[in-house]
Amino acid sequence: MAWRWLEVLGVERQRVSHTERWVSGGGAFVGILTVFALAWAGAMAPGGPLVVASMGASAVLLFAVPHSPLAQPWPVLGGHLLSAVVGVAVALAVPQPLVAGPLAVALAVLVMHYARCIHPPGGATALSAVLLGAAVHDVGFGYVLRPVGLDALAIVLAAVAWNLPFRWRRYPLALAPRARREGPPAIPHERFVYALSQLDTFMDVSEADLLRIYELATRGAGAGPGLRPEDLRLGACYSNGAFGEAWSVRQIVDWDESRPPAERQIVYKVVAGAGRRTSGVTDARSFARWARHEVYRDDENWRRAGPGGGAPEGPAARRGGGP
Description:
By secondary structure, the protein is an alpha+beta fold. It has two domains: 15-163; 229-319. It has helices at residues 2-9, 18-43, 55-64, 73-93, 97-115, 121-131, 134-139, 142-163, 189-199, 207-218, 284-290, 316-319, and strands at 237-239, 248-255, 265-273, 279-283, 293-298, 301-304. A six-stranded antiparallel sheet has the order 4-3-2-1-5-6. β3 and β4 (279-283) form a beta hairpin. α2 runs antiparallel to α8 and α4 (73-93) runs antiparallel to α5 (97-115). The longest helix has 26 residues, at 18-43. The protein is elongated, with a radius of gyration of 26 Å.
Protein backbone atom coordinates (compact mmCIF):
# COMPACT_ATOMS: atom_id res chain seq x y z
CA MET A 1 0.00 0.00 0.00
CA ALA A 2 2.85 2.39 0.82
CA TRP A 3 4.44 1.83 -2.60
CA ARG A 4 1.05 2.46 -4.24
CA TRP A 5 0.90 5.93 -2.68
CA LEU A 6 4.49 6.60 -3.69
CA GLU A 7 3.58 5.72 -7.26
CA VAL A 8 0.57 8.05 -7.15
CA LEU A 9 2.86 10.84 -5.93
CA GLY A 10 5.36 10.04 -8.67
CA VAL A 11 8.23 9.07 -6.35
CA GLU A 12 10.92 7.53 -8.57
CA ARG A 13 11.84 3.99 -7.48
CA GLN A 14 14.95 3.75 -9.64
CA ARG A 15 18.12 4.56 -7.74
CA VAL A 16 21.46 5.79 -9.02
CA SER A 17 24.91 5.55 -7.52
CA HIS A 18 26.38 8.14 -5.14
CA THR A 19 28.98 8.90 -7.80
CA GLU A 20 26.28 9.90 -10.28
CA ARG A 21 24.60 12.13 -7.70
CA TRP A 22 27.81 13.98 -6.88
CA VAL A 23 28.71 14.34 -10.56
CA SER A 24 25.29 15.91 -11.14
CA GLY A 25 25.68 18.33 -8.24
CA GLY A 26 29.22 19.27 -9.23
CA GLY A 27 28.13 19.89 -12.79
CA ALA A 28 25.31 22.19 -11.69
CA PHE A 29 27.85 24.20 -9.66
CA VAL A 30 30.19 24.51 -12.65
CA GLY A 31 27.35 25.40 -15.02
CA ILE A 32 25.94 28.23 -12.93
CA LEU A 33 29.46 29.40 -12.03
CA THR A 34 30.15 29.73 -15.75
CA VAL A 35 27.01 31.81 -16.23
CA PHE A 36 27.93 34.08 -13.29
CA ALA A 37 31.51 34.42 -14.50
CA LEU A 38 30.26 35.58 -17.89
CA ALA A 39 27.96 38.09 -16.22
CA TRP A 40 30.68 39.49 -13.99
CA ALA A 41 33.01 39.77 -16.98
CA GLY A 42 30.72 42.54 -18.16
CA ALA A 43 29.12 40.71 -21.06
CA MET A 44 25.57 41.50 -20.02
CA ALA A 45 23.46 44.52 -20.85
CA PRO A 46 24.12 47.52 -18.56
CA GLY A 47 21.37 47.96 -16.03
CA GLY A 48 19.70 44.70 -17.02
CA PRO A 49 19.47 41.45 -15.05
CA LEU A 50 22.87 39.79 -14.85
CA VAL A 51 21.64 36.20 -14.74
CA VAL A 52 18.29 34.76 -15.83
CA ALA A 53 16.92 32.73 -12.91
CA SER A 54 15.54 30.02 -15.19
CA MET A 55 19.14 28.91 -15.84
CA GLY A 56 18.99 27.23 -12.44
CA ALA A 57 16.26 24.94 -13.75
CA SER A 58 18.26 24.32 -16.92
CA ALA A 59 21.22 23.27 -14.79
CA VAL A 60 19.11 20.52 -13.20
CA LEU A 61 18.28 19.09 -16.62
CA LEU A 62 21.73 19.43 -18.20
CA PHE A 63 23.65 17.94 -15.28
CA ALA A 64 21.18 15.61 -13.54
CA VAL A 65 19.58 14.13 -16.68
CA PRO A 66 22.01 14.96 -19.52
CA HIS A 67 20.55 12.27 -21.80
CA SER A 68 17.03 13.70 -21.60
CA PRO A 69 15.60 15.08 -24.88
CA LEU A 70 14.64 18.16 -22.85
CA ALA A 71 18.31 18.84 -22.05
CA GLN A 72 19.84 18.67 -25.53
CA PRO A 73 21.43 21.80 -27.07
CA TRP A 74 18.57 22.77 -29.40
CA PRO A 75 15.87 22.50 -26.69
CA VAL A 76 18.05 24.56 -24.32
CA LEU A 77 19.05 27.26 -26.81
CA GLY A 78 15.84 27.29 -28.84
CA GLY A 79 13.62 26.93 -25.80
CA HIS A 80 15.15 29.88 -23.98
CA LEU A 81 15.54 32.16 -27.03
CA LEU A 82 12.08 31.59 -28.48
CA SER A 83 10.44 31.84 -25.06
CA ALA A 84 12.32 35.10 -24.44
CA VAL A 85 11.02 36.48 -27.76
CA VAL A 86 7.48 35.51 -26.78
CA GLY A 87 7.86 36.94 -23.28
CA VAL A 88 9.20 40.28 -24.46
CA ALA A 89 6.54 40.57 -27.17
CA VAL A 90 3.74 39.89 -24.69
CA ALA A 91 5.27 42.21 -22.09
CA LEU A 92 5.37 45.07 -24.62
CA ALA A 93 1.91 44.40 -26.03
CA VAL A 94 -0.10 43.53 -22.91
CA PRO A 95 0.20 46.03 -20.05
CA GLN A 96 -1.81 43.96 -17.55
CA PRO A 97 0.51 41.42 -15.81
CA LEU A 98 -2.47 39.30 -14.74
CA VAL A 99 -3.11 38.54 -18.40
CA ALA A 100 0.43 38.90 -19.76
CA GLY A 101 2.00 36.29 -17.46
CA PRO A 102 -0.28 33.34 -18.28
CA LEU A 103 -0.39 34.34 -21.96
CA ALA A 104 3.42 34.47 -22.24
CA VAL A 105 3.85 31.00 -20.75
CA ALA A 106 1.05 29.48 -22.84
CA LEU A 107 2.43 30.92 -26.08
CA ALA A 108 5.96 29.84 -25.14
CA VAL A 109 4.74 26.25 -24.71
CA LEU A 110 3.04 26.35 -28.12
CA VAL A 111 6.09 27.83 -29.84
CA MET A 112 8.45 25.30 -28.25
CA HIS A 113 6.16 22.46 -29.31
CA TYR A 114 6.06 23.57 -32.93
CA ALA A 115 9.79 24.34 -33.00
CA ARG A 116 10.53 20.93 -31.42
CA CYS A 117 12.58 22.47 -28.64
CA ILE A 118 10.58 21.84 -25.47
CA HIS A 119 12.62 22.97 -22.49
CA PRO A 120 10.61 23.48 -19.27
CA PRO A 121 12.78 26.37 -17.98
CA GLY A 122 11.76 28.23 -21.14
CA GLY A 123 8.37 28.84 -19.53
CA ALA A 124 10.14 30.59 -16.66
CA THR A 125 12.15 32.67 -19.14
CA ALA A 126 8.95 33.88 -20.82
CA LEU A 127 7.34 34.65 -17.47
CA SER A 128 10.44 36.50 -16.24
CA ALA A 129 10.22 38.87 -19.22
CA VAL A 130 6.77 39.88 -18.03
CA LEU A 131 7.62 40.09 -14.32
CA LEU A 132 10.73 42.22 -14.85
CA GLY A 133 8.50 45.03 -16.10
CA ALA A 134 10.39 48.27 -16.72
CA ALA A 135 13.76 46.56 -17.04
CA VAL A 136 12.58 44.60 -20.07
CA HIS A 137 10.68 47.58 -21.50
CA ASP A 138 13.94 49.53 -21.47
CA VAL A 139 16.02 46.96 -23.37
CA GLY A 140 13.22 45.46 -25.48
CA PHE A 141 14.19 42.49 -27.63
CA GLY A 142 17.83 43.03 -26.69
CA TYR A 143 16.87 40.98 -23.62
CA VAL A 144 16.65 37.92 -25.90
CA LEU A 145 20.36 37.95 -26.70
CA ARG A 146 21.64 39.50 -23.48
CA PRO A 147 21.29 37.97 -20.96
CA VAL A 148 19.12 35.05 -22.17
CA GLY A 149 21.12 33.99 -25.24
CA LEU A 150 24.51 34.33 -23.58
CA ASP A 151 23.35 32.53 -20.44
CA ALA A 152 21.95 29.62 -22.45
CA LEU A 153 25.07 29.31 -24.59
CA ALA A 154 27.33 29.44 -21.52
CA ILE A 155 25.50 26.66 -19.69
CA VAL A 156 25.40 24.43 -22.79
CA LEU A 157 29.15 24.79 -23.30
CA ALA A 158 29.72 24.08 -19.60
CA ALA A 159 27.60 20.90 -19.91
CA VAL A 160 29.63 19.70 -22.91
CA ALA A 161 32.92 20.22 -21.05
CA TRP A 162 31.77 18.81 -17.70
CA ASN A 163 30.21 15.59 -19.03
CA LEU A 164 33.08 14.77 -21.38
CA PRO A 165 35.37 12.96 -18.85
CA PHE A 166 32.62 10.60 -17.63
CA ARG A 167 32.32 7.63 -19.98
CA TRP A 168 28.73 6.80 -18.96
CA ARG A 169 27.65 10.37 -19.73
CA ARG A 170 27.76 12.02 -23.14
CA TYR A 171 26.50 15.49 -23.91
CA PRO A 172 25.06 16.09 -26.41
CA LEU A 173 23.54 12.64 -26.49
CA ALA A 174 24.45 12.31 -30.18
CA LEU A 175 28.10 11.91 -29.08
CA ALA A 176 27.29 8.66 -27.24
CA PRO A 177 28.60 5.58 -29.10
CA ARG A 178 25.83 3.52 -30.64
CA ALA A 179 25.48 0.04 -29.22
CA ARG A 180 26.21 -2.72 -31.72
CA ARG A 181 24.04 -5.80 -31.66
CA GLU A 182 24.77 -9.20 -33.16
CA GLY A 183 22.15 -10.19 -35.73
CA PRO A 184 19.03 -8.24 -36.71
CA PRO A 185 17.50 -5.78 -34.20
CA ALA A 186 14.77 -7.17 -31.96
CA ILE A 187 12.48 -4.31 -32.99
CA PRO A 188 12.72 -2.81 -36.50
CA HIS A 189 13.38 0.91 -36.27
CA GLU A 190 10.28 1.89 -38.23
CA ARG A 191 8.02 -0.14 -35.91
CA PHE A 192 9.62 1.46 -32.88
CA VAL A 193 9.05 4.98 -34.26
CA TYR A 194 5.46 4.09 -35.11
CA ALA A 195 4.83 2.79 -31.57
CA LEU A 196 6.14 6.04 -30.08
CA SER A 197 3.89 8.08 -32.38
CA GLN A 198 0.83 6.25 -31.11
CA LEU A 199 1.36 7.57 -27.57
CA ASP A 200 0.65 11.12 -28.79
CA THR A 201 2.55 12.68 -25.89
CA PHE A 202 6.07 13.94 -25.34
CA MET A 203 8.40 11.31 -23.88
CA ASP A 204 11.20 12.61 -21.66
CA VAL A 205 13.60 9.89 -22.77
CA SER A 206 15.48 9.63 -26.03
CA GLU A 207 14.75 6.99 -28.65
CA ALA A 208 18.33 5.71 -28.27
CA ASP A 209 17.93 5.29 -24.51
CA LEU A 210 14.59 3.51 -24.95
CA LEU A 211 16.20 1.05 -27.35
CA ARG A 212 19.09 0.58 -24.92
CA ILE A 213 16.65 -0.12 -22.06
CA TYR A 214 14.85 -2.68 -24.21
CA GLU A 215 18.13 -4.34 -25.15
CA LEU A 216 19.26 -4.59 -21.51
CA ALA A 217 15.86 -5.89 -20.39
CA THR A 218 15.77 -8.63 -23.03
CA ARG A 219 19.45 -9.55 -23.09
CA GLY A 220 18.99 -12.35 -20.55
CA ALA A 221 15.96 -13.82 -22.34
CA GLY A 222 18.00 -14.95 -25.31
CA ALA A 223 21.09 -15.92 -23.36
CA GLY A 224 22.74 -19.22 -24.08
CA PRO A 225 23.68 -21.88 -21.53
CA GLY A 226 25.01 -20.90 -18.15
CA LEU A 227 28.63 -20.64 -17.08
CA ARG A 228 31.07 -23.55 -16.98
CA PRO A 229 32.17 -25.01 -13.64
CA GLU A 230 35.70 -23.82 -14.51
CA ASP A 231 34.42 -20.22 -14.68
CA LEU A 232 33.22 -20.16 -11.07
CA ARG A 233 35.26 -18.37 -8.38
CA LEU A 234 35.18 -18.88 -4.64
CA GLY A 235 33.65 -15.83 -2.90
CA ALA A 236 32.16 -14.41 -6.12
CA CYS A 237 28.48 -13.57 -6.63
CA TYR A 238 26.38 -14.84 -9.54
CA SER A 239 22.97 -13.90 -10.93
CA ASN A 240 20.46 -16.17 -12.65
CA GLY A 241 19.58 -13.34 -15.07
CA ALA A 242 15.86 -13.87 -14.46
CA PHE A 243 13.22 -11.13 -14.53
CA GLY A 244 11.05 -9.69 -11.78
CA GLU A 245 10.63 -11.59 -8.55
CA ALA A 246 12.47 -14.66 -9.90
CA TRP A 247 15.75 -12.73 -10.06
CA SER A 248 18.34 -13.90 -7.51
CA VAL A 249 22.01 -13.54 -6.58
CA ARG A 250 24.02 -16.32 -4.95
CA GLN A 251 27.48 -16.05 -3.44
CA ILE A 252 29.82 -19.07 -3.36
CA VAL A 253 31.06 -19.31 0.23
CA ASP A 254 32.82 -22.69 0.24
CA TRP A 255 33.75 -25.70 -1.92
CA ASP A 256 36.00 -28.76 -1.88
CA GLU A 257 39.39 -27.61 -3.26
CA SER A 258 40.64 -31.19 -3.52
CA ARG A 259 38.18 -32.14 -6.28
CA PRO A 260 38.17 -31.07 -9.97
CA PRO A 261 35.98 -28.01 -10.75
CA ALA A 262 33.19 -30.02 -12.38
CA GLU A 263 32.94 -32.44 -9.41
CA ARG A 264 32.94 -29.95 -6.54
CA GLN A 265 30.14 -29.57 -4.07
CA ILE A 266 29.36 -25.86 -3.69
CA VAL A 267 28.04 -24.15 -0.57
CA TYR A 268 26.31 -20.89 -1.37
CA LYS A 269 24.16 -18.23 0.26
CA VAL A 270 21.48 -16.12 -1.42
CA VAL A 271 22.41 -12.47 -0.93
CA ALA A 272 19.73 -10.72 -3.03
CA GLY A 273 16.42 -11.37 -4.72
CA ALA A 274 14.33 -14.53 -4.41
CA GLY A 275 15.31 -16.62 -1.39
CA ARG A 276 17.45 -13.90 0.17
CA ARG A 277 19.20 -14.86 3.44
CA THR A 278 18.87 -18.59 2.69
CA SER A 279 21.68 -20.98 1.81
CA GLY A 280 22.16 -24.27 0.04
CA VAL A 281 24.49 -26.94 -1.29
CA THR A 282 24.66 -28.12 -4.89
CA ASP A 283 27.11 -29.57 -7.34
CA ALA A 284 29.23 -27.29 -9.52
CA ARG A 285 27.52 -28.31 -12.77
CA SER A 286 24.08 -27.44 -11.44
CA PHE A 287 25.28 -24.12 -10.04
CA ALA A 288 26.98 -23.24 -13.34
CA ARG A 289 23.79 -24.03 -15.29
CA TRP A 290 21.79 -21.80 -12.91
CA ALA A 291 24.24 -18.88 -13.12
CA ARG A 292 24.07 -16.58 -16.13
CA HIS A 293 26.85 -14.15 -15.20
CA GLU A 294 29.01 -12.92 -12.37
CA VAL A 295 27.82 -9.74 -10.63
CA TYR A 296 29.21 -7.28 -8.11
CA ARG A 297 27.72 -4.74 -5.73
CA ASP A 298 28.13 -1.06 -6.69
CA ASP A 299 26.61 1.30 -4.11
CA GLU A 300 22.89 0.43 -4.25
CA ASN A 301 22.97 -1.57 -7.49
CA TRP A 302 24.06 -5.01 -8.63
CA ARG A 303 26.07 -4.83 -11.86
CA ARG A 304 27.41 -7.42 -14.25
CA ALA A 305 31.13 -8.10 -14.07
CA GLY A 306 33.44 -8.57 -17.02
CA PRO A 307 32.69 -7.97 -20.73
CA GLY A 308 29.31 -6.35 -21.30
CA GLY A 309 29.08 -5.46 -17.61
CA GLY A 310 28.16 -2.18 -15.98
CA ALA A 311 24.39 -2.46 -16.43
CA PRO A 312 22.31 -2.53 -13.21
CA GLU A 313 20.02 -5.53 -13.06
CA GLY A 314 17.23 -7.11 -11.06
CA PRO A 315 14.92 -5.72 -8.38
CA ALA A 316 18.02 -4.78 -6.34
CA ALA A 317 18.80 -2.13 -8.93
CA ARG A 318 15.62 -0.37 -7.84
CA ARG A 319 15.32 -1.27 -4.19
CA GLY A 320 18.95 -1.48 -3.15
CA GLY A 321 18.63 -5.10 -2.02
CA GLY A 322 21.72 -7.08 -1.09
CA PRO A 323 23.69 -8.50 1.80
